[in-house]
Structures are given as structure tokens and as C-alpha cells.
Design a protein that fits this description.
alpha+beta, four-stranded antiparallel beta sheet, 6 helices, 21% strand, globular
């Protein structure tokens, strides 16, 4: 009898751990525009394009630019990829012209090239509008 109770308690404990772990992962999703932008930048620098693509607004232009960007990164030497992975980024400017758009200007300390990132709120989720990065390099407007 004690063996059955112990076995049942063990299964309940194991199931609780699994459910808690799944809930923890879900809670790590970015909630704000800034969190989404930060996670996208970090994922791209580290070469985690699976994660970065999850944060991308899925339209034809964005997917095309993202594919080109990923191919460029994959063409880098091992040393250059390591340099990107080990680099930090500096947020230079954040603008939120309204409650559905956030513009972030940043650079990484490896290449030191100012880059613009646009985030849009779509169905209560912040996503990266990557095409903006390729069309608005001078300043964030």
C-alpha cells in the first residue's frame, strides 16, 4: 500500500515539475517593446536565428530581408561570428511615437555601426518590422 502511495506521489511531483517548467518558459516571452527589441538584438548577435525569427513580423518583405541577413551572418568567418557573439550592444535612443510603434537605435561594440530597429504591436504582441532596418539608417523618424 505504501509503495502505491509513494509511486502516485512521485508521479504527481514529476508532473508538477514539468508543468512549472513549461509555465516558466512561457513567462520568459517578452512583454514590452523594449524587451522584444533587446531579445531580437541579442539573438541576432549570437546567431540564434530561430529565436530572432519568432520575434519577426511575418510578412514577405521582412522574411526576405531576414533571410538575406541570416545568409550574410552565416558567411562570416568563425572569428567574426565569435566577435559578434561576445559583443555588447548599446541603446542610443528609444522613441515611442504611439502605443503601437517603438523605434530603437543601437550599435554593438564590435562593428560600432548605428542600426535602427522598429517594433510594432500586432495582436497584443510586439514584433520586429525588420524592413525598417534596411530603409531608415540615418536617424529614427
Amino acid at each position: 500500500m505504501h509503495k502505491k502511495v509513494f509511486l502516485k506521489a512521485s508521479w504527481i511531483f514529476l508532473l508538477s515539475i514539468i508543468l512549472f517548467a513549461c509555465q516558466e518558459k512561457k513567462n520568459n516571452d517578452p512583454k514590452t517593446s523594449f524587451d522584444t527589441g533587446r531579445l531580437f538584438i541579442e539573438s541576432c548577435l549570437k546567431g540564434d536565428f530561430t529565436k530572432a525569427k519568432e520575434l519577426l513580423f511575418q510578412d514577405d518583405q521582412n522574411l526576405k530581408y531576414f533571410e538575406i541577413f541570416q545568409q550574410q551572418y552565416e558567411g562570416f568567418s568563425t572569428a567574426e561570428k565569435e566577435a559578434y557573439k561576445n559583443s555588447d550592444y548599446i541603446i542610443q535612443e528609444i522613441k515611442e511615437p504611439n502605443d503601437t510603434v517603438c523605434l530603437i537605435r543601437y550599435e554593438n561594440n564590435y562593428k560600432k555601426v548605428p542600426t535602427n530597429l522598429k517594433l510594432i504591436r500586432n495582436n497584443q504582441q510586439w514584433l520586429v518590422d525588420f524592413k525598417y532596418t534596411f530603409t531608415q539608417q540615418d536617424s529614427i523618424k
